[in-house]
Write a structure and sequence with these properties.
10 helices, Aminopeptidase, alpha/beta, Alpha-Beta Plaits, binds zinc ion, about 450 residues, about 35% helix, 2 domains, three-stranded antiparallel beta sheet
């Protein structure tokens, strides 16, 4: 049996768009200043969660709110469970939008607004895939759970709470990633791809200087584009060279290199501190000499420093760099934290995080039947060859043993997540909806 998935998607788009506008209109930035026992991450994300569950109630689904941490929309039943992970919180909108970020607008086949692409639009694409299958009379042989998180952008407390209360589904795909399929995530790698979205003055100068900088550093990939309608935001990306964290000199850390480019411009305050740390101190500091944690042991050799995860967002309480440090005998995590705090404590705090389960590299084998099914649906609907991707970016998929990222970004699509004037293509949402419907069907028939 087969369903007309593209037709499903076309029919559902008007309703999806209406619901998406309502969801975008809810400012769902996490706000811990307003957190209460009732609203663990502040009221915004919880309002968006309630709205999402309302939509599903309206359409006759069984829903559940797990103590305002997460929500579930359930379809079908069976001994096995397929999870689809989405989130309704958004990152702060920043200055420079051409219109109000929480009053969505449609232009040139795209809908604009904070959360349009990350992750409210794709979340609804997955939801409407379920609805279309339900209305077509499909009865899945598995329990399908659409799991809605409220704090994906920060600490993932929603999903952690969910897993305390519920067994993990047998398979999970997240709609907060890329097609064809992302099967792995690694924090023990040098990040190659790096992106910065810059607003304020000097944008023209920055854009003009970028190509030269790339050429001088032997970097080929160049992306520089204005991302806002009124030209007040600039997004620049570069591609370094990935390598394992134990041999950082074999790669080129994209984040450090990008920061080294930006720090030549007059940034101030926290932005300047962050760029100086990432782009000067951490740049090629393979043995932790510049950051003052160097140590050498006669047998084990030098400690090795690899800054792996970078995040800076205007207006966010925390900016951070997570480093993977392989230390040799003669030092300790406590000692290194002390050294860093002694030297840089005026503007940053260093803490030690053990290499726990959450941080371990995550992989699902590419010949796993779950992965093969998702890839074949993608290939069938797009006519493109499917291949598995390992990414340094995190998505909910990596939270689960058999978890992967599956869309919504297509190869070559414009990625505006976290950017000023965030938007998503309506045609791509429609394509995703059709792919999700067929994938869910194939995995639960
Ligand atoms: Zn996201
Ligand atoms: Zn995000």
């Amino acid at each position: 049996m087969t369903f007309p998935y593209q037709e499903f998607a076309r029919e559902k788009m008007p309703a999806l768009l209406a619901d998406l506008k309502d969801l975008i209109a809810i400012d769902s930035v996490r706000n811990m200043d307003l957190a209460t026992p009732e609203y663990p991450v502040g009221p915004g994300p919880i309002k968006a969660l309630a709205k999402f569950l309302n939509i599903a109630d309206r359409d006759g689904f069984q829903t559940e709110n797990i103590d305002n941490y997460a929500g579930i929309v359930t379809f079908g039943q069976g001994d096995q469970e397929l999870g689809v992970a989405v989130h309704v919180d958004v990152v702060p909108p920043d200055e420079g939008w051409s219109q109000d970020p929480f009053t969505p607008w449609v232009k040139d086949g795209r809908i604009f607004g904070r959360g349009a692409s990350d992750n409210k639009g794709p979340a609804l694409a997955a939801y409407y895939a379920l609805l279309a299958l339900k209305e077509a009379g499909f009865q899945p042989k598995k329990k399908i759970s659409l799991i809605i998180g409220t704090d994906e952008e920060t600490d993932w407390v929603g999903m952690k709470y969910y897993l305390q209360k519920r067994p993990a589904p047998d398979w999970v795909f997240s709609t907060d990633s890329s097609f064809p399929i992302v099967t792995g995530q690694a924090t023990n790698m040098i990040p190659a791809a790096a992106t910065a979205v810059v607003s304020g003055e000097n944008l023209a100068k920055i854009a003009a200087a970028f190509p030269d900088f790339l050429a001088k550093n032997g970097l080929t990939r160049e992306v520089a584009e204005a991302v806002s309608d009124n030209g007040t935001g600039l997004k620049i990306s570069l591609e370094g060279v990935s390598a394992h964290a134990s041999v950082p000199w074999e790669g080129k850390n994209g984040a450090c290199v990008l920061a080294s480019f930006l720090r030549a411009f007059p940034f101030t305050g926290r932005a300047k501190n962050f760029l100086d740390f990432a782009g000067d101190l951490e740049l090629e500091d393979y043995y932790g000499e510049k950051i003052r944690i160097a140590n050498a042991d006669p047998e084990m050799g030098k400690s090795i420093n690899c800054p792996a995860v970078f995040r800076y967002q205007n207006g966010e309480a925390e900016a951070y760099i997570k480093s993977n440090i392989r230390y040799s005998r003669g030092t300790s995590p406590e000692k290194m934290c002390q050294q860093l705090n002694d030297k840089f404590g005026a503007f940053c705090q260093t803490t030690f995080q053990p290499y726990q389960d959450f941080e371990k590299p995550h992989f699902v084998a590419s010949d796993d039947p779950f992965v093969k099914t998702l890839l074949s649906v993608y290939e069938k609907q797009t006519g493109q060859a499917g291949e598995t991707i390992i990414s340094a970016g995190a998505n909910y998929g990596r939270f689960f043993k058999n978890g992967v990222g599956y869309g919504p970004a297509f190869p070559g699509s414009l990625d505006t997540a976290h950017a000023i004037d965030e938007s998503v293509s309506l045609a791509e949402l429609e394509k995703s909806l059709a792919i999700y419907a067929e994938a869910i069907y194939e995995l639960s028939k």
